[in-house]
């Protein structure tokens, strides 16, 4: 059995976070484990509260899974605090976790802070050098690199800067850039562009689904380019078949 772990927050509405990650991994034939970093109180109207899981418990979750089962890939999502970020960075190194996909979650759809400002500096210094691929949207890429990302040229500059920080690959997503979305992957030598079509949906959790799908496909043995290509198509189908629920009229993944 191919296995992977998601290190991320719990979303009680199951639109993002650990719940979405595990659903994706299971759908793609990978057995998913999890280490919950935070418990969020959220629904279609936004994130109402973030409850931090004690760092010691986060570490013990990672240790319990990796010591017993081993994992072929890892998705890292919402970390929130600098303490948990440092701990996750250390555990990735200590447990020699392969195929690490970092979704640098910073803000929720409605603007709520999901990564404390001091943690951003530590992400750049400690976590990014340990990951296989980082998958920021345009806003996150700009905050991490200081490079304005308004078009493909800016996305390429930011992707290069992220690999200069130590990531083996950088995938800068184009969903927050005007026009048809184009994601840009950089492998320290070459750029690969992944065009897509913009859909009129009010989604959240697309970054979680994309990064979890990439991790699952890497665990199954795909190359990075193939994993990203598959994940892009997977997310497009997920958005197409989403369902609208809640008073906030948010679209949720349901059937791929």
Can you put this structure into words, describing what you see?
By secondary structure, the protein is of the alpha/beta class. It has a single domain, classed as Ribokinase (UDP-N-acetylmuramoyl-L-alanine:D-glutamate ligase). It has eight helices and eleven strands. The protein has helices at 17-27, 55-68, 82-94, 117-127, 138-145, 152-164, 206-219, 224-240; strands spanning 3-11, 31-43, 46-52, 74-76, 100-102, 133-134, 169-172, 182-186, 191-195, 243-245, 250-252. The strands form two sheets. It has a nine-stranded mixed sheet with strand order 3-2-1-4-5-6-7-8-9, sandwiched between helices. The protein is globular. The mean pLDDT is 93.
Order of helices and strands: EHEEHEHEHEHHEEEHHEE
| SSE-based structural type | alpha/beta
- CATH fold node name: UDP-N-acetylmuramoyl-L-alanine:D-glutamate ligase
The tally of strands reads: 11
CATH superfamily: Ribokinase
Name of the level-1 CATH class: Alpha Beta
User: Architecture, CATH level 2?
Assistant: 3-Layer(aba) Sandwich
Strands in their spatial order, largest beta sheet: 3-2-1-4-5-6-7-8-9
Question: What percent of the residues sit in helical stretches (DSSP H or I)?
Answer: 25-40%
Number of helices: 8
The count of domains is: 1
Keywords, please?
9-stranded mixed beta sheet, single chain, 256 residues, 22% strand, UDP-N-acetylmuramoyl-L-alanine:D-glutamate ligase, alpha/beta
Quick structural gist:
This protein has 256 residues and is α/β, with parallel strands linked by helices. It is built from 8 helices and 11 strands.
């Amino acid at each position: 059995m191919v296995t992977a772990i998601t290190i991320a927050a719990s979303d009680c509405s199951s639109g993002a976070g650990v719940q979405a990650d595990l659903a994706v991994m299971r759908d793609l034939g990978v057995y998913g484990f999890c280490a919950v970093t935070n418990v969020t109180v959220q629904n279609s109207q936004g994130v109402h509260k973030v409850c931090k899981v004690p760092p010691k418990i986060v570490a013990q979750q990672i240790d319990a899974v990796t010591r017993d089962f081993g994992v072929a890939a890892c998705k890292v999502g919402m970390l929130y605090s600098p303490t948990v970020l440092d701990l996750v960075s250390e555990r990735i190194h200590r447990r020699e976790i392969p195929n690490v996909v970092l979704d640098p979650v910073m803000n929720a759809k409605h603007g709520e802070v999901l990564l404390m400002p001091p943690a951003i500096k530590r992400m750049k210094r400690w976590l990014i050098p340990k990951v296989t691929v980082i998958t920021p949207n345009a806003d996150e890429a700009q905050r991490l690199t200081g490079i304005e990302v308004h078009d493909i040229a800016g996305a390429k500059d930011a992707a290069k800067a992220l690999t200069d920080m130590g990531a083996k690959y950088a995938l800068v997503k184009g969903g927050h850039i005007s026009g048809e979305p184009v994601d840009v992957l950089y492998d320290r030598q070459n750029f690969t562009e992944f065009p897509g079509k913009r859909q009129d949906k009010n989604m959240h959790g697309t970054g979680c689904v994309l990064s979890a799908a990439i991790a699952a496909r890497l665990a199954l043995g795909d190359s990075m380019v193939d994993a990203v290509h598959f994940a892009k198509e997977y997310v497009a189908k997920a958005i197409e078949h989403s369902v609208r629920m809640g008073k906030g009229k948010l679209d949720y993944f349901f059937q791929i």
